[in-house]
Amino acid sequence: MLDELDRALIHALHIDGRASFTQLAAVLEVSPQTVSRRYERLREQAALRVVGLPDPQLTGHEQWLLRLTAEPETALDLAHALVRRADTSWVYLTGGGTEIVAVLETPLGMAHGHSLLLHELPPSVGLTAVSAHHLLHTYLGWRTPWRMSANALTARQQRMLVGARPPERHDQVQLSPADHALLDALRRDGRAGVAELAVDTGWSPATVSRRLDHLRACGTVFFDIEIDPALLGGSVRALLWMAAAPAHLDEVATALAGHDELAFVAHTTGPTNLVAHALCPDTAALYQYLTHGLGAVKAIRTLETAPVLRTLKAVGPIRPPGPPGRRG
User: In the Cβ-directed half-sphere of 65, how many Cα atoms lie within 13 Å?
Assistant: First the structure.
């Protein structure tokens, strides 16, 4: 079980995933050694990981949400094939265990970029249905964490962390091969030390530090948290596929982004134009949310609920062998 200090540390890492243990200790009013021990315990027991992510819009990419259905005996093989790809994230096994949902990132403007993935899949996966939904606008998620994982710090504590960083802009940046190597390393471990990042990029530690500060200030890279949502009250998970009239879509999505039960809300193309990820303590709570929370949003015309059975891949790549880097 998580206690108040665990939750406060998780919230702090949402705000600044690369804050040192000394900085975190000052915010949480404990010793750096206590923060270090709690961080290691959360890594081992709660699957905690800090990951550095490039902003797709600022790095010339776009995202697709894929729904793929396979024969029962091959669905898991298909899911694992998607997990191994570097351009996928959030690979879920949903429904009755024959549907896989994944996010695919492709270079901006690539026509039918999702079709490249299908051509590169093994022929033995037994695909029976495919639909692709272009993610047009995200209302909740990516840069904005699930409210129940970032609700432990006071306003003063949050200002202490935010105030330690320069204001973030959102500028397009031309990335070099070394920048891409830096981003790849941060995807694996967002708290990797500058010495380790220097090895990955071929830069000096001082150059790594300056370049990372610049990419963060421009908004090109941001940091997110991976953790078992069940520990935060998200034991029952479901993807919600909804349709709203275009005239009401922005109003509906903005309202949904304020619901505590949702960790992700986005506008997509396709027969349903809204998708959300619901996290609830149990099936009774999910029922209450679907009937009363969503039921109160009258402009939602249709709703499909797909229970998430397994998360095979989150936002970062598969963990490499060996201990991850640390920032003291």
Answer: 24
DSSP labels, 65-92: EEEEEE-TTTHHHHHHHHHT-TTEEEEE
Task: Tell me the pLDDT tens digit for each residue of 165-196.
Answer: 666 777 788 899 999 999 999 999 999 999 99
Share of the chain above pLDDT 70, in %: 90
Match domain 228-313 to its CATH number in 3.90.180.10, 3.40.50.720, 3.30.750.24, 3.30.70.920. 3.30.70.920
What's the predicted TM-score (pTM) here? 0.90
Output DSSP code: residue 295: T
What does the alpha-carbon distance between residue 314 and residue 225 come to, in Å, rounded to a whole number?
A: 10
> How many of the other CB atoms lie within 10 Å of CB of 232?
21
List the chain domain ranges: 228-313
d(CA 327, CA 79): 33
Distance of alpha carbon 76 from alpha carbon 305, whole angstroms: 21
What residue type is 172 in one-letter code?
Answer: Q
